[in-house]
Amino acid sequence: MATIVVVGAQWGDEGKGRVTDFFAEKADMVVRYQGGNNAGHTVEVDQKRYKLHLLPSGIIHKDKISVIGNGVVVDPEALLEEIEYIQKEGLTVDSLRISERAHVIMPYHKVLDAISEENLEENEIGTTKKGIGPCYMDKAERSGIRIADLIDEKAFREKAKKAIRAKNEILVKLYGKEPLDEEEIIQKYTKYGEILKPYVVASTSLIYHAVKDGQNVLFEGAQGTLLDIDFGTYPYVTSSHPIAGGVCVGTGVGPTLIDNVVGVVKAYTTRVGKGPFVTEQDNEIGDTIRIKGHEFGTTTGRPRRCGWLDGVILKYAVMVNGLTYLAVNHLDTLSEFETVKICTGYLLNGKSIYDLPANLEEIEKVEPIYEEMPGWDLESLRKAKTYEELPENAKKYLEKIEEITGIPVCLISFGPERHQAIYRTEIF
Ligand code: IMP
C-alpha cells in the first residue's frame, strides 16, 4: 500500500491533473482535500481532453473511488453541472463520494466574492469569483452550511433561512444591493441536496480504512503552494491549504499515514491574478511561453502571467510540503529557446537571499539572480522514450532543478498525451 500527495509547487496550474492521472492508474482511491471549483484540471486520456473543476481526476477511471474530502468547498450547482458533463462524455459517477463535513458554497458566497473584489478596486485579488473565500470565511466564523445540512431538508431550511437573512442585511444595508430570494434558494438547494444525497459518506472513515486495508490512495491538491493562505503570497492567495499539510485537515488522515509528497512544477512559472512574481517576463519571452504552453485559465479563460523557473520558490515548496519528489511538466513548451534561464536566488538591497520573504514589498523589490543554460529542440525531446534519450541540455536543466531543490525528479512530461512522459521512479 502507499499514499501519495500531489501538490502544486508554484501558483497553481502546474499540470497536477495530468500527474494525478498518471498515478491514478495504480490508485484505488483519489481524494480532493481543499479548494473548490476555482480549480481547473485538464486531463487528456486516449486523445480525449476532460476539463474538471471539482470532481477528483479519478472520476475518469470507473474503477477508482473518487472522494471530495471535508476540506473542499462544494458548489452543488457547479458539481451537478460537472456530473452532467461527465455523463455526457459517456462516463459514470457511481464511484463518487462526498464528505458530509464539506462546506456548501451558497449563492450569497458568489455575490459577496464579486462585491469584495469590486470594492478592492485596483487592489483586487483576482479571485475566480466562485465564492470560495466567502464560503471559507463562514466556515471559520462557524456559520457555514455543510453537506450534512444540505441533505437534511429540515436542518437545511433552518440554517439557510438564518444565513440568507444575515447576508441580505449585508447586501442591502452595507452594499445597497438587491436582497436574494430566500424561498427560491431554499427550494433549489433542497432539490440539489436530494440529488447529491446518495453520494454523501463519512469520508474520513472511508479513506482511513482504505489506507489500513493496503489500498493505494492518491491525494490530489488544487491550486499551489504559493496560493496557500498561510504560506503563499498573502493576501494574493486562495482561502484554503493547498500544501501537503492540507491533506491532514482536509481529509482527517493523520500525517503518519502519508508516504510520499510529489510537487508538480512547470519547466517555467505562471500565475493568474494579482501579486508579486519575481521571474515574470512581461515581454516576448512571456508571450512565447503563453502561446506555446496554452497558458489561459481552465476556469476563467484569463491569460496567465508567464516567466522563467524560480528556484527560490521551488526550494520553499520543498520545505513547506516536505516534498519527496518533483514532477516536471511542459518541458516541450520551453524547447526551441536558444537559451533558458533559471532563477537560483534573489538580490534584495544588493544582498543575496535564498528564502522567499513574507513581506510582499520585499518580494516586489528583489531582483532575480539567473543562471543561463543552453536550450534543446522539440523534435529530439519528443523522440525520447527513456530519461537517457532526452536531449543532453534538457537533462542538464532537470539536473539543475534537482541540484537546487535537493530532491529527485520522478516524472517528466513533454506533451499532453500519456506517452509524452517519462516515469523514472515507481512510487506506487
Ligand atoms: P479564489 O481561489 O477564487 O478565491 O482566488 C484567489 C486567488 O487564487 C486568485 O489569484 C486566483 O487567480 C487564484 N486561483 C484560484 N484557483 C486557482 C487555480 O486553480 N489555478 C491558479 N490560480 C488559482
Report on this structure.
The chain has 14 helices and 20 strands. The mean pLDDT is 96. Helix 3 packs across helix 4 (132-141) and helix 6 runs antiparallel to helix 7. Strand 19 (409-413) and strand 20 (421-423) form a beta hairpin. 35% of the residues lie in helices and 20% in strands. The protein has helices spanning 16-24, 76-88, 107-120, 132-141, 147-150, 153-174, 182-196, 203-212, 246-251, 284-292, 311-321, 360-365, 378-383, 392-405; strands at residues 3-8, 29-32, 41-45, 48-52, 65-68, 73-74, 96-99, 103-104, 200-201, 217-220, 260-266, 269-271, 305-307, 309-310, 325-329, 339-348, 351-353, 367-374, 409-413, 421-423. It is α/β, with parallel strands linked by helices and 428 residues long. Strands 9-7-5-2-10-1-11-15-19-20 form a ten-stranded mixed beta sheet, with helices on both faces. Strands 14, 16, 17 and 18 form a four-stranded mixed beta sheet that branches. It has three domains: 3-99 and 200-260, Adenylosuccinate Synthetase, subunit A, domain 1 (Adenylosuccinate Synthetase, Chain A, domain 1); 103-196, Adenylosuccinate Synthetase, subunit A, domain 2, CATH 1.10.300.10; 265-423, Adenylosuccinate Synthetase, Chain A, domain 3 (Alpha-Beta Complex), CATH 3.90.170. The chain is globular, with a radius of gyration of 22 Å. It binds inosinic acid. Inosinic acid is lined by residues 11-13, 38-40, 125-128, 130, 132-133, 222-223, 227, 236, 238-239, 272-273.
